[in-house]
Design brief:
The structure holds 2 protein chains of 2 kinds.
Chain A (H helix, E strand, L loop, with lengths): L1 E3 L2 E3 L2 E5 L12 H17 L8 H5 L2 H11 L5 E4 L15 H10 L4 E5 L6 H14 L2 E7 L15 H12 L4 E5 L15 H9 L4 E5 L6 H10 L3 E4 L11 H14 L5 E2 L9 H10 L4 H7 L5 H15 L4 H10 L1 H9 L1
Parallel strand pairs in A: 3-4, 4-5, 5-6, 6-7, 7-8, 8-9, 9-10
Antiparallel strand pairs in A: 1-2
Helix pairs in contact in A: 5-6, 8-9
Chain B lengths: L22 H9 L2 E2 L4 E2 L6 E7 L2 E6 L8 H15 L7 E5 L6 H9 L4 H4 L9 H25 L4 H6 L5 E4 L2 E4 L7 E5 H13 L21 H35 L4
Parallel strand pairs in B: 4-5
Antiparallel strand pairs in B: 1-2, 3-4, 6-7, 7-8
The chains are: A alpha/beta, B alpha+beta.
């Protein structure tokens, strides 16, 4: 909850992780390269006071996460990603079984996302059914650049991906978070190309596609697709971190999103632990679009727009009744702790 | 029309170049290597870590912003750097190094023997990278055009007026470019480099650059009429922001990487 002038803003962190990237878990150089690259995002864009030592960043644990999100970080609920990366990390990066431990401790605080990989073909379909039966799955998180036995990625419009998306819908899951990464087959094409989203969004009109990092580095192509497809949304993680080191570009990115997609289709995400939600939210709430940008784009970033971005839009997608959920959360372990801290 | 060769200043570049080489020439050659995705020079982006030479054999080490920078773009930068540096007088051979990168070995082996990309990644790439390169030259055109068009708008020209301009109305004088129209007072618009970048790419893509052709042309080489110019500008703006914001992210990441080298 972010409090401003007696007003309470309900915050859903649309993109966060509970990862283990400790040295013991590195399977090879890629695991090391992975977390070091993440660390550069963290140290390069965070305000100085929020930069962690590398060791803590590799494995921060549940207690730190709960403190950084809920106790200190203004967040009410988090959408917990599952990212496997079994070819880089021995026990995976943040697989669903580990995430579920956290979910079970704070059931009303998290939306648990499952992952699937269409390259698992038939066997993976059964596994997805089983996962949904076994775990309280709220959405799915897809990472199309994951390596698998020599393959460097997949596309949302691959034939097997369509079978998985049909199954997702059949299992009653509505929200699909999609993250584009840097390596995808074939390597000779643009690895960040977002056009497969266009096909999937058209062919699965009952699913919502939340494109993490607003399609960056392909913000333009993402905007064209999201303008045409009513079920495509912008996940703001990474883009929002510009607000500290490069506020001018944050202003231009958010102005473009408001211009093309509108205020109902943008979802806040911290990408924790890459960045801590506390400073992102505080800076967003304090941020004003420069006059020249407002004038040129004819958009505004008022408090009511910020309220939608921070929580209302995600709540609508996940059918969360905010007033009712606030009551529930005030009574859980974290809520009680927050109340006693005043 | 711009016919003089515009030369970007290299004064701010503090890359050390061995004294056996012509520094100016080495820097010029590196400056014309672009990060295709960002449409900016690898020299200006700070991606050139070192240049060394052993008699006529030059070794250049690149440092990219992340370990995961896409293999295809990394390959293009490596092979372009090598080909360009081979033009430097007195250089007979060039070796490119990529440092800490997930595909360093495959890219270095391929670029240093001037092999096509698909040979370096035989099971993962089925063609060379010309299509990819072309796609980003075209995106770059849109970005350059937006910057140019923005200068015209800021100088007070209306969409109607801009749409009526011909390429020959653009005149470069010193560090600025101007609009000279028949029967109207000349207008000083913006930095010469902005006009030069626009026309240079336009020529590279084979779009009409003749003095009597329309100044505002789209990628199909059609003039952009006044009534659609505002929408055209709004779309181009998003492409420019996408590329510039990515460039800003890359510069932050490169800095972080340089600071962090030494940890862990």
């Amino acid at each position: 909850m972010f409090k401003v002038n007696g007003d309470e803003i309900f915050v859903i962190d649309g993109h966060m992780h509970n990862w283990n990237a400790s040295r013991e878990n590195w399977l090879n150089d890629y695991g090391e390269g992975w977390i070091k690259c993440f660390y550069d995002y963290h140290s390069g864009l965070s305000p100085e006071d929020y930069v962690w030592p590398f060791e803590k960043y590799c494995q921060y644990g549940e207690e730190t996460l709960v403190k950084d999100l809920f106790l200190d970080g203004h967040v009410d609920m988090g959408i917990l990603n599952s990212t496997n990366l079994f070819e880089f990390f021995k026990e995976g990066f943040n697989p669903i079984d580990k995430n579920n431990v956290l979910k079970q401790k704070h059931p009303d605080r998290f939306i648990l996302c499952a992952a699937f990989d269409p390259r698992d073909e038939e066997a993976g379909m059964d596994k997805l059914r089983q996962t949904v039966e076994e775990y309280p799955v709220g959405g799915v998180k897809l990472y199309t650049a994951e390596w698998r036995q020599g393959s460097k990625g997949w596309k949302l419009n691959d034939p097997w991906a369509y079978k998985y998306l049909s199954l997702t819908e059949e299992l009653g899951i509505k929200n699909v978070h999609v993250h584009k990464g840097p390596t995808i087959y074939p390597l000779s094409r643009d690895a960040f190309d977002v056009n497969d989203v266009d096909y999937a969004a058209t062919d699965f009109p009952n699913l919502n596609f939340i494109i993490e990092h607003v399609g960056l580095p392909r913000l333009d192509d993402f905007c064209w697709i999201a303008t045409q497809e009513r079920n495509v949304y912008a996940g703001l993680s990474v883009a929002i971190a510009f607000i500290h080191p490069r506020p001018k570009y944050f202003a231009e990115i958010i102005a473009n999103l408001l211009f093309w997609l509108g205020e109902d289709k943008i979802l806040f995400g911290s990408d924790y632990a890459i960045w801590s939600p506390k400073w992102l939210i505080e800076k967003l709430m304090a941020f004003e679009l420069p006059d020249d940008i407002q004038e040129e784009y004819k958009v505004s970033l008022t408090q009511s727009v910020k309220r939608k971005i921070l929580g209302e839009n995600a709540a609508r997608l996940y059918e969360i009744d905010i007033p009712a959920r606030k009551t529930t959360l005030s009574k859980d372990e974290i809520g009680v702790q927050l109340a006693s801290a005043g | 029309m711009i016919d003089q060769e515009y030369r970007q200043t290299l004064d701010g570049i503090n890359l050390s170049v061995p004294s056996c080489l012509d520094r100016e020439e080495v820097l010029r050659q590196l400056d014309s290597v672009l990060d295709p995705e960002l449409d900016q020079s690898i020299l200006g982006l700070g991606f050139v870590k070192s240049v060394e030479c052993n008699e006529s054999h030059l070794t250049v080490e690149l440092e990219l912003p992340t370990y995961w920078c896409a293999a295809n773009f990394s390959y293009l930068m490596a092979i372009d750097a090598r080909r360009n540096l081979l033009q430097v007088p007195g250089v007979d051979d060039v070796t490119v190094r990529l440092g800490d990168h997930f595909a360093a070995k495959a890219i270095e082996d391929g670029a240093n023997s001037d092999k096509p990309f698909s040979d370096s990644f035989p099971d993962e790439a089925w063609d060379n990278l010309e299509q990819l390169r072309d796609l980003f030259l075209r995106k770059g055109y849109i970005g350059r055009q937006e910057t140019f068009l923005r200068q015209l708008i800021n100088a007070g020209l209306s969409y109607e007026e801009i749409s009526g301009l011909q390429s020959g109305d653009v005149v470069v004088d010193g560090e600025s470019f101007w609009i000279h129209r028949d029967g109207a007072e000349a207008v000083q618009v913006g930095p010469a480099s902005v006009a030069w970048r626009y026309f240079q790419r336009r020529e590279e893509l084979g779009l009409d650059c003749s003095p009597t052709g329309a100044l505002m042309r789209d990628l199909r080489d059609q003039s952009v009429p006044a009534e659609t110019l505002e929408t055209y500008f709004a779309r181009s703006r998003t492409t420019r922001v996408s590329s510039e914001a990515t460039g800003a992210l890359c510069s932050v990441l490169l800095q972080a990487r340089q600071t962090a080298s030494g940890i862990a």
